[in-house]
Design a protein that fits this description.
Layout (H helix, E strand, L loop, with lengths): L2 H6 L32 E7 L5 E2 H10 L9 E6 L9 E7 L2 H12 L2 E8 L14 E9 L4 H6 L3 H15 L3 E5 L4 E6 L3 H8 L5 E2 L1 E6 L15 E3 L2 E7 L4 H10 L10 H14 L4 H8 L4 H4 L4 H13 L9 E7 L5 E6 L8 E4 L5 E5 L2 H5 L6 E4 L6 E4 L3 E5 L10
Antiparallel strand pairs: 1-10, 1-16, 2-9, 3-8, 3-10, 4-6, 4-7, 5-6, 11-12, 12-13, 13-14, 14-18, 15-16, 15-17, 18-19
Helix pairs in contact: 7-8
Length: 409
């Protein structure tokens, strides 16, 4: 869908179809959804001591940047939500109807033990357009030792990835939007303030939150395609456009991932999982592969760093993310971690902040989002293509202003 078409369209919905489903793309945007300017907004916060943060804080951060959205998507992800089920995978779903739910549960029963399942409380807003998906979560454990598990020949994490991909690809109207331990994604088609109220985000508390307000250009605005995009404990909030989507998609699909969410941001999530979890690259090296230096700049690096930079550019050439972007990355294995990365020209904004006591760290598209909840925050900007990394229990590991491979070699 080209950009000019998106700017001139208005909302319409097919009969007998849920607006959350991919078959019913948002194809027309009413005048009330057409701000004079717009770009996706991202915001994140993390407490280094692991103490809980109310969802109302991240809600205020993302809604402060309301001029960056047009009502076609928003979402939140929280870590540390389910201490009583911290060892189970929490699979959270959007279902089009009860049939898609039943088919999904039947498929899952062959793959996992269901420890607990529950309806996710939702509160539809009058300003949002129905119908709405059924939202449900399942706490599960892989059925190790079964024929299905043995036949796949996969480890536990890859087994869960295979299950998620199978559901999203084969069960009509069913989308697993998060599948990590002790975390969950809450997202949908609407303004950030609407999605926050739809899920009553303020009722939740987590040690880290990421959020996103969407202004889609080259992809449809729909429930499952909203951000954050997640697989296992990874979650991604992305502002920008990935013009290298085709080659990036080929790389992750050759590795077994299935792209079903109709957005370029999906490949970014799978690239982090592929390079860091499966290939065991340090996050700084993976970040360099996605936003590499120019060869003329690499030549100025010390010998050992120059060799590593060239090897990454050659080995992971298909992982290079071309186009403007800034991303927030969440992870909880082995510890809750927030990473922030802008493209190598920094064509999308990204700022960081830390509270006066040094315990709370923030990232956002705009300074106002951070100042709205932490007036005394010390602000700084990351360098282009240089990741900032913050970990619970460890603090600010990288400010995003250091040498490219600090901590990687």
């Amino acid at each position: 869908m080209d950009r000019d078409y998106m700017q001139t369209a208005t909302l319409s919905f097919p009969e007998a179809s849920s607006v959350f489903a991919e078959q019913s793309y948002v194809v027309e945007i009413p005048d009330c959804h057409k701000p004079r300017m717009g770009s996706c907004g991202i915001a994140g916060c993390i407490n280094i001591d692991g103490s809980m943060i109310s969802g109302s804080k991240i809600e205020k951060m993302i809604t402060t940047m309301s001029e960056r959205e047009n009502g076609l998507g928003s979402g939140f992800v929280a870590y540390g939500l389910f201490p009583d089920f911290a060892e189970e995978y929490c699979m959270q779903f959007l279902f089009e109807n009860e049939d898609s739910q039943a088919q999904t549960e039947e498929l899952m029963s062959n793959w996992v033990y269901m420890i607990k399942d529950e309806k996710v409380p939702t509160f539809p807003q009058r300003s949002m357009m129905p119908p709405f998906p059924l939202v449900r979560r399942y706490f599960v454990r892989p059925k190790k030792g079964t024929e299905v598990y043995i036949r796949t020949g996969l480890n536990e994490e890859d087994y869960m990835v295979r299950l998620v991909m199978s559901i999203n690809e084969t069960v009509p109207g069913s989308y697993c939007v998060s599948s990590g331990k002790d975390m969950a994604v809450f997202k949908g088609s609407g303004y950030a303030r609407e999605i926050a109220k739809f899920y009553d985000i303020s009722r939740y508390k987590g040690s880290m939150w990421l959020s996103h307000s969407r202004f889609p250009t080259n992809s449809p605005g729909w429930w499952a395609g909203s951000h954050p995009i997640s697989i296992l404990d990874w979650s991604i909030c992305h502002n920008g456009e990935i013009t290298s989507y085709g080659v990036n998609r080929k790389l992750v699909e050759m590795a077994g991932y299935k792209c079903t969410l109709l957005t370029d941001s999906e490949v970014v999530t799978y690239l982090w999982d592929l390079m860091v979890r499966r290939h065991r690259l340090p996050p700084t090296a993976a970040a360099f592969a996605m936003a590499p230096w120019y060869y003329k700049d690499i030549e100025r690096l010390p010998d050992n760093e120059r060799r590593l930079a060239n090897q990454l550019r050659i080995t992971y050439k298909e992982a290079f993310l071309n186009g403007p972007f800034s991303i927030l990355v969440g992870r909880s294995d082995p510890v809750v971690t927030m990473m922030a990365l802008a493209d190598r020209k920094k064509l999308r904004p990204l700022v960081m902040g830390v509270s006066g006591d040094g315990n709370s760290v923030y990232a956002a598209s705009e300074e106002c989002a951070i100042k709205s909840v932490q007036g005394d925050a010390e602000m700084w900007a990351t360098r282009a293509g240089n990741p900032a990394i913050v970990k619970v229990g460890e603090g600010i590991v990288r400010r995003g202003t250091e040498a490219p491979f600090l901590g990687a070699i």
